[in-house]
Amino acid sequence: MPFDPVLCLNGISVAVVKMRVTVICLFFVSFIFVSAKKPNIVVIIADDLGWNDIGFHGMNHIPTPNIDALAWSGIVLQKYYVHPICTPSRSALMTGKYAHNLGLQHRVLYGMEPRGLPLSEKILPQYLKGLGYKTHLVGKWHLGSYKKEYLPLNRGFDSHIGFWTGRIDMYDHTNMEQGSWGFDFRRGYEVAHDYFGKYVTDIYTQEAEKIIKGHNKSEPLFLVVAHSAVHSGNPPEPIRAPDDVIESFNHISNYQRKKFAGVLSKLDESVGKVISSLHSEDLLNNTVVLFTTDNGGCPAGFNQNAGSNYPLRGTKATFWEGGTRGAAVLWSPLLQKKSRIANQRLHITDWLPTLFGVARGNVSVLKDIDGIDQWDALSKDEKSQRNTITYNIDQIDGTGALSIDDWKLVTGKDYDGEWDGWFGPDGYEGAYNKDLVYDSPAGKAISDLKLMPPKDYIDELRKTAQVTCGNQSVLVCDAKAKPCLFDLSQDPCERQNLASEQPEMLKKLWVEFLKANATAKLPSNLPMDPRGNPKYWGRMYVNFGDFERLS
Question: Is 231 a catalytic residue?
Answer without folding.
Answer: no
